[in-house]
Amino acid sequence: MEFLKFEQQGPIGILSFNRPDKLNALSLDVLDELESFLRDAEKNTSLRVLILRGEGRAFVAGADIRTMSGFQAEEAVAFARKGQRVFGFLEELPQVVIAAVHGYALGGGMELAMACDIRVAERTAQFGQPEVHLGIIPGFAGTQRLPRLVGTGWARYLILTGRRITGEEAHRIGLVEVLAEEGKALETAMDVARDVLKGGPHAIPLAKRMVLRGVDMPFPVAQAFEAETFAYLFTTGEPQEGMRAFLEKRRPAWTEESS
């Protein structure tokens, strides 16, 4: 891969954005490469947790402004839809996806982090949606994911002012779930990944799907979906092993465990 680097350590994969001279900005070529990687990752049954990070001084500083500067309306809508599609595919992966954020996560970079399941950020990281300062708006679903994560008040404030906030502030408003000390984003994300791996290999992706799909369903429909998913797990043998291990005070021996 030209713009991305991937390494897998057992069931944990680390995907690094590797354009440090461009602060890992998201061009069309980067989005193409990311989409291709995600389609392969979806089929990688040995991969249970995927960590996203950036090389150099940034997680991802945003979409490539040089790419966008010459757009006409037709090119702009194609670019926005491409980013939305790729980030939507990321969000729907069966694996748990963790953003390990240091440095800048601005514009498209913050939108990328929001498409992940869990966000780990260093206290000094910089988050922001500064698009209005360029005369545009977030185009990779930032106007939709941000209010779902932090509420409409904070979303309006951050999007309408374009103000940057630190990782510490992002944690306070609920945009970031786990704070890391400076230089420790990846290490802390690995700790979170190991916590995820303690769960059942069937239960984890189904729990993820339940939350993603259920939140937009009418409550009675989502509740019924939850009950059916809960029941389905008993056909896998996983709950029986998990509960037996709990009663016997030992670690579960998951049939698909590779951690």
Please characterize this protein's 3D structure.
The protein has 259 residues and is α/β, with parallel strands linked by helices. It has two domains: 4-196, Alpha-Beta Complex (2-enoyl-CoA Hydratase, Chain A, domain 1), CATH 3.90.226.10; 203-247, Orthogonal Bundle (Lyase 2-enoyl-coa Hydratase, Chain  A, domain 2). Helices cover 47% and strands 17% of the residues. It has eleven helices and ten strands. It has helices at residues 28-42, 65-68, 73-92, 108-114, 142-150, 152-161, 167-173, 185-196, 203-214, 219-233, 238-247, and strands spanning 4-9, 12-17, 49-54, 58-60, 96-101, 104-106, 118-122, 126-128, 165-166, 178-180. A six-stranded mixed beta sheet has the order 1-2-3-5-7-10, sandwiched between helices. Strands 4-6-8-9 form a four-stranded mixed beta sheet. A hairpin with a 2-residue loop joins strand 1 (4-9) and strand 2 (12-17). The longest helix has 20 residues, at 73-92. 36% of the residues are buried. The mean pLDDT is 96.
Please state the structural category. Answer: alpha/beta
In which order are the strands of the major sheet placed? 1-2-3-5-7-10
Low-confidence parts lasting 5 or more residues at pLDDT below 50? none
Output the CATH homologous superfamily of the largest domain: 2-enoyl-CoA Hydratase, Chain A, domain 1
| Total DSSP helices | 11
CATH architecture of the largest domain: Alpha-Beta Complex
Q: Remind me, CATH topology of the largest domain? A: 2-enoyl-CoA Hydratase, Chain A, domain 1
Look at the structure and give the mean pLDDT. Answer: 96
N- to C-terminal distance = 26 Å
The level-1 CATH class of the largest domain: Alpha Beta
Q: Secondary-structure element sequence?
A: EEHEEHHEEHEEHHEHEHHHH
Indicate the overall shape. globular
Largest sheet: 6 strands, mixed
Alpha carbon gyration radius: 19 Å
Strand content: 15-25%
Number of separate structural domains: 2
> Share of helix among residues?
40-55%
This entry's quaternary arrangement is: single chain
Task: Kindly state the number of beta strands.
Answer: 10
